[in-house]
Amino acid sequence: MTRFQIIVLSAVCCAFGALALEGPQDLRAPAYAVNVVLAIAAFFYAGRDLTERGWSKGYLFAATYVLPLVGTFVYIALSNREKREPVSA
């Protein structure tokens, strides 16, 4: 995924989180379930992307997606590096 796609995924995840907290009562549980699935997906995509950008602890930084909005801001702040070419042995 591109940086833009991961940021959009994060924004959609946040929207479902807000719906889970403040939405109609009958939509809160399904919105929360979608939010959890999107947060897990964002964790894996952002972790892999940050690792490719040279952050040795990319997945640790991406783990901030368990905190509302924090993961999005951490990813935006750290993903401004260029991706590195894989080193062949």
Structural category: mainly alpha
Low-confidence stretches: none
Overall strand count: 0
The string of secondary-structure elements, in order, is: HHHH
Strand content: under 5%
Report the radius of gyration as a whole number of Å.
14 Å
Instruction: Please count the helical segments.
Output: 4
Biggest sheet: strands, sense, closure?
Answer: none
Description:
It is a single chain. The chain has 4 helices and no strands. By secondary structure, it is mainly α. Helix 1 (about 5-20) runs antiparallel to helix 2 (about 25-50) and helix 1 (about 5-20) runs antiparallel to helix 4 (about 70-80). It starts with a helix and ends in an 11-residue tail after the last helix. The mean pLDDT is about 85.
